[in-house]
Backbone:
C-alpha cells in the first residue's frame, strides 16, 4: 500500500494526544487516589479520637451503655462508618459480627484494611488499645470506613478520562486531517505547475519563489533534473545532427557519383570505377552504422560478456604488434611501461579494440619518429591503460569532450586528409571502458597528450 | 555448392542469388518461411542461408524444425546484433550467423569456411605460379629465390595463399593474421600488404597479390600481366 502523508500526519497527531492524555490521566489518577485516602484517614482519625476520649474517661457500665448508644448514633444506616470494641470482658464488647472481627483482625494498632467475609464489604480501618479503668478491662477500639464510595469515585474518574481521551483523539484526528490538507496544498500547487510544463519548451522551470521554504529544495532538485534533461536533449539533437552530417557526405558522393556515371554512355571500366568508388563510400556508411549500433548497446547498459582473465601487458603487446607495419613505416616506437604483471578480467576483443583506437589516434597525432608510451597502472580497484603521444597540446576546454561522439578538436580537420576514423574512435573507447565498469580520462600538457581508459578489476561492477 | 537462400527482402535475395551463382553455386531462393521450410526439408543443400525475421514461419522456428530431420549447415542472418539472437540461433542449431548489414565478401568467406570444415587436412606446401610456400618450415620462395619474411609477413602471405582466388577484406585479414575481431578503421592492413608486395611481388613476375578496390585483396595467378594498380 502506498503511504499517504495526510494519514501519517493524522496518525502521529492521534498518537501525540493519546500519549499526552495517558500521562496527564495517570498523574491525576494518582493524585486523586492519594487525596481520597487522606480524606478517609482524616475521617477515621476524627472518629477514633472522639470515641477514645469517651472511652478513656469512664470505666463503669452505665457510661459504657451510653457510649454504645453514641456509637449506634454515629454509625450511619448504610454502614459506611463502623465501630468495633473488643475486650476480654463480654460486657465491654461492641459491633456487629464480632466473631468475624476476632478472627480477621489480629493486627496491631494503626491503619489496616479489612474485608468482612460475610457482607464482602471492604473497610479501611484504624485501631488503638485503650488501657483498663475501674470495671473496664483494656479494650481495643476499631473504626472502619467503607472503601466502596472511594473506589467508585476512582472508577468514575477513569471512565471519564477514557471517554475524554477518545473524544480528544477523534477531534485531533479530524483537525489533523484538515491541517494536513491545508499544509500540503503547496505540494498540490507544485504538481499542477509541473503538469503544466510543456515538452516543447525545455527551458521552462518551476517558479521557486512561489514555493514555501520547505519545498525549495525539492523544487531546486526538480529544476536541476529538468536542466540536465534539457542538456541531454540538446546533446541528443546535436548528436542527431552530427550523425546526419556524417551520413550525408558518403550519401552525397554515392548519389552524385552514380548520377554522373549514368548520365552518359560509358565503358565497362568507367562503370567499374564508379562502383568501386561507391563501394568505398558504402563501407564507410556500414562502418558508421556498426559503430553506432555498438555505442547504442553500450548506452543501454550492456555489460561486456565473454570475460576472461588476461595478462594486460600481453594484450597490449599483441595490439601493438598489429600496428607494427604502420609503426615501421613512420619510424614510430612504442614503449610499454608500468606494472607489467597486471592481470585483468576483460573481453579481449573489446580491450584490443579500445587500445587500437587509442594507438591509432596517437600515431595519427604525432610526428613520424616519435616515441609513444603505453602505461599500465593498477589503481583502486581498476586497471588503467594510458597511451601518451608527443604532439600539439590540446586546449583544456576540449579535454572533457574528447570522448563525445563525433567531437573534433579542430572542426576543419574533418576534411584534412583524415581518411580513417569518423569521430567515433574515442566514444568507442569510452563505451568499452563503461562495459567493463571503468572510466576514461584525457590530459594534455607540455606537448604530450595522454588518453586513458580503465577496466574494473572484477569485470563490470554494477 | 548447392545453396538455399531464405530471405524475404527481395533486393537482398536477388543480389545474393546473383553473386553466389556467379561464384559457381546452384542457388534456390525462398521469400518466406513456409516455402523455405518446404524446400529445406525436401532437398539436400550444402548450406542454407536463413534470415531470422521471416513472414510465415520465422527463421528460428524453421531452424528447429529442420534440425529434427536434417543436419544441413545453416548460416543465420539477423538484423540486430543482440546477444539473445545470437545465443538463440546457435542454441537452435545454426552453424554460423551474420549481422546485417553484412558484406557479401564476409558471407562468401563464411560459406567457404563451412564447406572447408568437412574437408581433409590442409596441405603443408602451397604453390601459386612460381611462388612456393612451405607452411611447416615457414619459408617461401619465388622461383629459386628465397624470400625473407618476418613472422607476421609470413602469416599474412599464408592466409592469402591458403585462400587463393578468394577476396579477403581488410577486416578479415586483420582477424585472421592479428586476431583483431573488429572493424579497425586503420590503414595497417594496407601498409602490411604494401610491404609484403614489395618483398613477394615487386621484383618478380607474374604479379600475384592484387588489390580489389573497395573490397580487399586476393592472391592468384592472373592471365594478363599488366593493368593492375597497386594501391
Residues:
Amino acid at each position: 500500500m502506498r503511504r499517504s502523508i495526510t494519514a501519517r500526519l493524522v496518525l502521529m497527531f492521534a498518537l501525540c494526544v493519546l500519549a499526552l492524555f495517558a500521562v496527564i490521566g495517570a498523574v491525576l489518577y494518582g493524585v486523586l487516589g492519594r487525596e481520597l485516602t487522606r480524606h478517609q484517614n482524616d475521617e477515621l482519625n476524627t472518629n477514633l479520637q472522639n470515641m477514645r476520649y469517651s472511652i478513656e474517661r469512664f470505666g463503669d457500665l452505665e457510661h459504657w451503655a451510653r457510649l454504645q448508644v453514641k456509637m449506634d448514633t454515629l454509625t450511619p444506616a448504610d454502614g459506611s462508618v463502623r465501630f468495633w470494641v473488643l475486650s476480654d470482658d463480654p460486657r465491654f464488647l461492641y459491633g456487629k459480627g464480632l466473631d468475624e472481627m476476632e478472627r480477621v483482625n489480629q493486627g496491631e494498632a494503626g491503619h489496616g484494611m479489612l474485608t468482612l467475609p460475610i457482607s464482602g464489604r471492604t473497610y479501611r480501618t484504624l485501631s488503638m488499645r485503650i488501657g483498663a479503668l475501674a470495671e473496664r478491662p483494656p479494650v481495643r477500639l476499631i473504626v472502619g470506613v467503607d472503601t466502596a464510595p472511594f473506589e467508585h469515585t476512582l472508577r468514575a474518574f477513569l471512565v471519564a478520562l477514557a471517554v475524554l481521551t477518545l473524544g480528544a483523539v477523534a477531534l485531533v484526528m479530524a483537525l489533523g486531517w484538515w491541517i494536513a490538507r491545508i499544509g500540503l496544498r503547496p505540494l498540490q500547487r507544485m504538481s499542477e505547475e509541473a503538469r503544466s510544463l510543456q515538452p516543447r519548451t525545455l527551458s521552462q522551470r518551476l517558479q521557486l519563489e512561489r514555493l514555501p521554504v520547505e519545498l525549495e529544495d525539492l523544487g531546486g532538485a526538480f529544476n536541476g533534473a529538468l536542466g540536465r534533461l534539457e542538456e541531454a536533449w540538446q546533446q541528443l539533437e546535436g548528436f542527431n545532427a552530427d550523425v546526419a552530417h556524417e551520413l550525408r557526405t558518403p550519401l552525397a558522393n554515392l548519389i552524385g557519383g552514380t548520377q554522373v556515371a549514368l548520365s552518359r554512355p560509358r565503358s565497362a571500366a568507367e562503370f567499374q570505377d564508379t562502383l568501386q568508388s561507391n563501394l568505398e563510400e558504402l563501407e564507410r556508411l556500414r562502418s558508421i552504422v556498426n559503430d553506432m549500433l555498438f555505442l547504442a548497446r553500450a548506452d543501454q547498459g550492456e555489460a561486456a560478456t565473454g570475460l576472461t582473465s588476461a595478462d594486460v601487458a600481453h594484450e597490449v603487446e599483441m595490439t601493438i604488434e598489429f600496428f607494427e607495419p604502420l609503426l615501421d613505416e613512420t619510424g614510430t616506437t612504442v614503449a610499454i611501461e608500468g606494472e607489467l604483471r597486471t592481470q585483468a578480467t576483460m573481453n579481449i576483443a573489446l580491450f584490443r579494440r579500445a587500445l587500437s583506437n587509442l594507438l591509432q589516434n596517437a600515431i595519427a597525432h604525432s610526428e613520424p619518429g616519435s616515441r609513444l608510451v603505453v602505461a599500465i597502472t593498477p589503481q583502486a580497484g581498476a586497471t588503467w591503460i594510458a597511451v601518451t603521444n608527443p604532439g600539439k597540446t590540446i586546449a583544456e576546454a576540449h579535454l572533457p569532450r574528447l570522448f563525445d561522439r563525433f567531437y573534433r578538436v579542430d572542426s576543419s580537420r574533418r576534411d584534412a586528409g583524415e581518411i580513417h576514423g569518423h569521430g567515433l574512435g574515442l566514444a568507442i573507447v569510452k563505451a568499452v571502458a563503461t562495459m567493463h565498469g571503468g572510466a576514461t580520462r584525457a590530459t594534455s600538457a607540455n606537448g604530450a597528450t595522454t588518453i586513458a581508459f580503465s577496466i574494473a578489476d572484477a569485470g563490470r561492477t554494477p | 555448392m548447392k545453396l538455399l537462400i531464405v530471405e524475404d527482402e527481395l533486393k537482398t535475395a536477388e543480389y545474393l542469388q546473383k553473386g553466389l551463382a556467379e561464384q559457381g553455386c546452384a542457388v534456390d531462393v525462398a521469400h518466406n518461411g513456409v516455402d523455405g521450410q518446404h524446400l529445406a526439408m525436401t532437398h539436400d543443400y550444402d548450406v542454407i542461408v536463413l534470415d531470422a525475421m521471416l513472414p510465415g514461419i520465422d527463421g528460428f522456428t524453421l531452424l528447429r524444425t529442420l534440425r529434427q530431420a536434417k543436419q544441413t549447415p545453416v548460416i543465420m542472418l539477423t538484423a540486430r546484433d543482440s546477444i539473445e539472437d545470437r545465443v538463440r540461433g546457435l542454441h537452435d542449431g545454426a552453424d554460423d550467423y551474420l549481422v546485417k548489414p553484412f558484406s557479401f565478401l564476409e558471407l562468401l568467406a563464411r560459406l567457404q569456411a563451412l564447406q572447408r570444415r568437412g574437408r581433409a587436412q590442409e596441405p603443408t606446401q602451397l604453390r601459386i605460379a612460381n611462388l612456393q610456400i612451405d607452411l611447416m618450415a615457414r619459408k617461401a620462395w619465388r622461383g629459386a629465390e628465397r624470400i625473407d619474411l618476418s613472422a607476421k609477413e609470413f602469416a599474412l602471405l599464408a592466409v592469402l595463399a591458403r585462400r587463393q582466388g578468394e577476396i579477403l577484406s581488410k577486416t578479415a585479414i586483420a582477424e585472421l593474421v592479428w586476431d583483431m575481431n573488429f572493424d579497425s578503421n586503420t590503414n595497417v592492413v594496407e601498409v602490411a600488404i604494401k610491404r609484403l608486395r614489395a618483398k613477394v611481388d615487386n621484383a618478380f613476375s607474374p604479379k600475384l597479390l592484387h588489390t580489389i578496390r573497395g573490397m580487399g585483396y586476393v592472391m592468384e595467378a592472373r592471365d594478363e600481366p599488366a593493368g593492375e594498380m597497386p594501391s
